[in-house]
Amino acid sequence: MKLTHSRAVLLMIAITLMWSIAGVVTRHLESARSFEVTFWRSFFTLLSLLVLLPLFQGRAVFSRIRHAGRFLWLSGVCWSIMFTAFMLALTMTSVANVLVTMAVGPFITALVARVFIGHRIPPRTWVAIAVAGVGIAWMHGSQVSLGASAGQLAGTLVALLVPMAAAVNWTVVQRSQAHGEKIDLVPAVLVGAAISSLLTLPLAFPFVATPHDIGLLALLGLVQLAIPCVLSVVCARVLKAPEMALLALLEIIFGILLAWAGAGEVPAASVLTGGLLVIGALVANELMGWRQRA
């Protein structure tokens, strides 16, 4: 699939819209909760990728997965943590909390890469990390002072596992390239979905999901995860990394708005304030970096 730059931008916007439906869809589940929600979404993601991958990469992709090195499997483990923690967090706290917490991913990635592979962090990024930290502290500090439940705070901590696993995943990808082994990210997503399905299956019993729930979770597996993951790889061949990073921020905005409009979940004022600080820090950091590289 070949794209012009403008079409890649439009496709990336559509991808972020697909990513953002998870919150509002989970709010319309009837009975499924916790690990069962995670299991069904991961299971349907696995089934979807088993069909999509051969269409995009040919049947030889499965042979490449079987003979892949340790880095692909490490990446798959990271994806499985991200899948599991994301859906669990959505069942424990608000959509806005989860999405804003995940937004610190680029900064956690910068810190992990600095520690483990020696990447230099420019001063502008240190400033952005500090501002984003203030935003997160303000958001969650205000919730504590307002008497947020232990479950909501636990959900935030679970959501924090997503950017942490993503940071490790990115570092694994960079290390693999240094060792001459380039990871194909979409097969790594398939491996992650398989691991997440296997790990959460025993924890999902007894199944209580209704056919309505299973239909919604199948929608998430296909439309919210499998299809956009494949298409984002296509976009990455055309768009530069800063463009991808900035466009990906739309998931936060779309996700909060969809949960607000489609499920009546009004974000707290502290979440909006903290979220603006985090997103503002991200946008400023990426734009400054883009200008310096130009």
Molecular structure report:
With 294 residues, the protein is mainly α. It is built from 14 helices and no strands. The protein has helices at residues 5-19, 21-26, 34-57, 60-66, 70-90, 95-102, 105-117, 123-145, 150-178, 185-204, 211-236, 241-248, 250-263, 269-293. Helix 12 runs antiparallel to helix 14 (269-293). The longest helix is centred in the middle third of the chain and has 29 residues, at 150-178.
Topology readout:
Layout lengths: L4 H15 L1 H6 L7 H24 L2 H7 L3 H21 L4 H8 L2 H13 L5 H23 L4 H29 L6 H20 L6 H26 L4 H8 L1 H14 L5 H25 L1
Name the average pLDDT: 87
Number of strands: 0
**How many distinct helices?**
14
Question: How would you characterize the largest beta sheet?
Answer: none
User: What oligomeric assembly is this protein in?
Assistant: single chain
Determine the structural class based on helices, strands and strand pairing.
Answer: mainly alpha
Weakly predicted, low-confidence segments: none
Concise synopsis of the structure shown:
The chain has 294 residues and is an all-alpha fold.
List keywords for this structure.
single chain; mainly alpha; 81% helix
